[in-house]
Design a protein that fits this description.
The structure holds two protein chains of two kinds. Chain A is α+β, with helices and mostly antiparallel strands. Chain A contains twelve helices and seven strands. The two termini of chain A are 53 Å apart. By secondary structure, chain B is α/β, with parallel strands linked by helices. Chain B is built from ten helices and eleven strands. In chain B, helix 3 packs across helix 4. Chain B is globular, with a radius of gyration of 19 Å. Classes of the chains: A alpha+beta, B alpha/beta.
Chain lengths: 361, 274
């Protein structure tokens, strides 16, 4: 404790530098408390305004379970390498958030949510959806797809659409090879079907034009036999090409179905996004905002007091003079009573007429 | 020695102050000028205004010290090491040197019953009371010019034993020469021969270098520091410049604290005034 000495009916103390600085800061603060509290009041007011004027936001959350391997995957060998340093949830969340940065994916989410009209009239922008729809890993295999929107229904629709669009994207990317094959063989089958039909028609037409002899003992002319054999061969070759293309197309379709089933098994929706009942900006959020701004304002005020305490070298206390080696003998409070009212006049008061001189002795 | 008489047996106390010799007035130094009676201390507000130690010259009130001032200065006087020639100065103008020096001189005269002369050596004052100037027929400046003698300088006041000497008007160019002149030293020496205590009102040290020279006429000086007005750098500069006579200490003047009462603890580092 500091040593206390009484001077002039008041208190002076020998104190450490830190105590003296704290005392100066307190003295400066309480000298003009409103001035120093002004930043805190302004910033707190701004916080209150922000908290009260912030529009209501609704949040809908869908929960996905992510599996790195599935039984179908094991049977079919769809994916051969699933090793990664990231957990499946982190990988999925990262992919989702990266895709949301693309206009195409974000627009697909909006359109998939049935909010294309709102996007068209500007009440919902791609930027809004991009900022307020995201995925977050909640463990090694759990991913939360979160959508925040001004309307509770929109939030739910965006969350559902986000999950569906992401699944479709993964399916289409992993099954893109089989899709192409399927389309290719579909085109081929059409061509081959025409060839089969044409060969069949040619054979039928030839047989109609050249019927078999009436007498069963008679044989066809050798020329006819050769022509029929040629047309029959053409039909058989066309049918063989068609059958081969059909088998390939079926193989491609099966691969697509396998991928789709595999992905649906990998990304299982545990919790469907629901329509939120309460807004995010509740009383707790408002209080948090106000408290944060208040703390910030107080820090600014504190910094102002400290700054003034450092800059201002005025003498505030006896200890400031003690530090300089100037011994404080008296401390005189400020008083207006020393000012003389010059208008004050009294009746003449008898005063000493002679100057009291010290006697020679 | 009686507190009310000088060594030669005369009673310097004006008739109107005779009643002030009562113990209450002696202890408090309080005279109600409206009745010229010792103030009976009361509990109400009405008595507070009358609790001033007033200094009158003729019918002109030249100085008054409220109780909060006299109480603080009495602690200073209680140390008992005030030299018979005392200088009071400051760093800058407006720090209350004149008020403090007059209060101190009047308290020495009133409390200690010692003949005291307050001497104004501050020709640099920027504000003068025109009414007060008429009270002093002779000033140091007029004596320097040959109009009057040193014996004409002290003007008696209503406080027993307290006299005052005015500086007068000295051209700015002549002030340094006058401050260093033997004539001024002789004036002070002559006054010192007539009074027990000489309290000199010196100019601000940072406003005039003559303050250093004039301080040599005293045996020590008190530095008046106005709270919030004077910086520690200025105080340090004064202490370094005033190397002619020792610094007896400082008077922290005009203190005010806005701290809440609950924060005014025993280890509070600034002086407080209610």
């Amino acid at each position: 404790m500091a040593a206390v000495t009484e001077i002039g009916g008041t208190t002076s103390t020998s104190v450490s530098g830190a105590q003296r600085f704290f005392a100066r800061a307190m003295f400066i603060f309480f000298g003009k408390p409103l001035l120093f509290l002004l930043p805190a009041l302004i910033i707190t007011g701004a916080g209150v305004y922000m908290a009260s004027s912030e529009p209501s936001q609704y949040q809908s959350v869908g929960v996905l379970s992510i599996s790195s391997e599935t039984f179908l995957d094991t049977l079919s060998g769809t994916r051969t390498d699933t090793r990664s340093f990231e957990t499946p949830a982190v990988t999925t969340a990262r992919q989702f958030n990266e895709l949301m940065q693309t206009d195409g994916f974000a627009a697909s989410v909006i359109d998939g949510a049935g909010l294309g009209e709102q996007r068209a009239n500007g009440s919902l922008t791609v930027l809004d959806v991009r900022e307020n729809t995201y995925a977050s890993a909640a463990g090694d295999t759990i991913v939360e797809v979160i959508a925040v929107a001004a309307e509770p229904q929109w939030a739910q629709q965006l969350a559902v659409s986000g999950i569906a669009t992401f699944k479709n994207f993964v399916i289409s990317s992993e099954a893109s090879g089989t899709d192409v094959a399927e389309i290719f063989y579909d085109e081929q089958l059409t061509t081959y079907k025409l060839e089969v039909d044409a060969a069949s028609a040619a054979l039928q037409d030839y047989l109609a034009a050249h019927p078999e002899p009436i007498d069963s003992d008679d044989e066809r002319d050798i020329g006819e036999q050769l022509e029929i054999a040629k047309l029959d061969d053409q039909l058989a070759r066309a049918q063989a090409r068609f059958d081969s293309a059909f088998d390939n197309r079926e193989a491609a379709r099966l691969a697509t179905l396998q991928s789709s089933a595999d992905i649906n098994q990998r990304f299982r929706t545990l919790d469907e996004p629901s329509v939120p009942e309460a807004s995010l900006s509740g009383l707790k959020t408002m209080l948090t905002t106000v408290v944060l701004f208040s703390v910030l304002g107080l820090l600014v005020s504190l910094a102002a007091v400290v700054l003034v305490s450092v800059i201002d070298r005025s003498v505030y206390s006896a200890s400031d003079l003690d530090v300089l080696g100037a011994n404080v003998l008296a401390v005189v409070p400020r008083t207006s009573a020393m000012k003389i009212d010059h208008a004050r006049r009294l009746k003449p008061v008898p005063s000493a007429t002679d100057v009291p001189m010290r006697s020679a002795g | 020695m009686s507190l009310n008489t000088w060594p030669d047996g005369t009673d310097p106390t004006p008739a109107s102050f005779a009643s002030a010799s009562s113990s209450a007035a002696l202890n408090e130094g309080l005279i109600d000028r409206s009745t010229n009676q010792p103030v009976k201390r009361g509990r109400g507000r009405s008595s507070a205004k009358a609790d001033n130690l007033e200094v009158w010259v003729g019918d002109h009130l030249v100085h008054q010290s409220p109780p909060v001032v006299t109480r603080s200065l009495r602690y200073l006087m209680a140390r008992g090491d005030i030299p018979t020639r005392l200088g009071v100065t400051s760093s800058l103008f407006g720090e209350g040197v004149t008020a403090m020096s007059r209060s101190l001189a009047s308290l020495i005269a009133y409390d200690w019953r010692e003949s005291t002369c307050w001497v104004d050596l501050n020709w640099w004052k920027t504000t003068h009371d025109p009414n007060e100037a008429n009270l002093f027929r002779h000033t140091i400046a007029s004596v320097v010019e040959g109009r009057g003698s040193v014996a004409d300088l002290p003007v008696a006041t209503s406080v027993a034993g307290l006299s005052m000497v005015a500086a007068g008007e000295v051209p700015a160019g002549s002030r340094p020469r006058l401050a260093r002149s033997d004539f001024l030293a002789d004036v002070i020496n002559e006054l010192a021969g007539s009074f027990e205590y000489i309290v000199c009102d010196l100019p601000p040290v940072l406003a005039s270098s003559d303050a250093v020279t004039l301080s040599g006429l005293s045996a020590g000086y008190l530095l008046v520091v106005q709270q919030r007005s004077t910086s520690s750098i200025q105080v340090r500069g004064v202490l370094q410049a005033m190397n002619v006579v020792p610094c007896l200490g400082t008077i922290l003047n005009g203190t005010r604290s806005n701290l809440p009462r609950w924060m005014r603890t025993s280890n509070e580092v600034w002086a407080l005034g209610d």
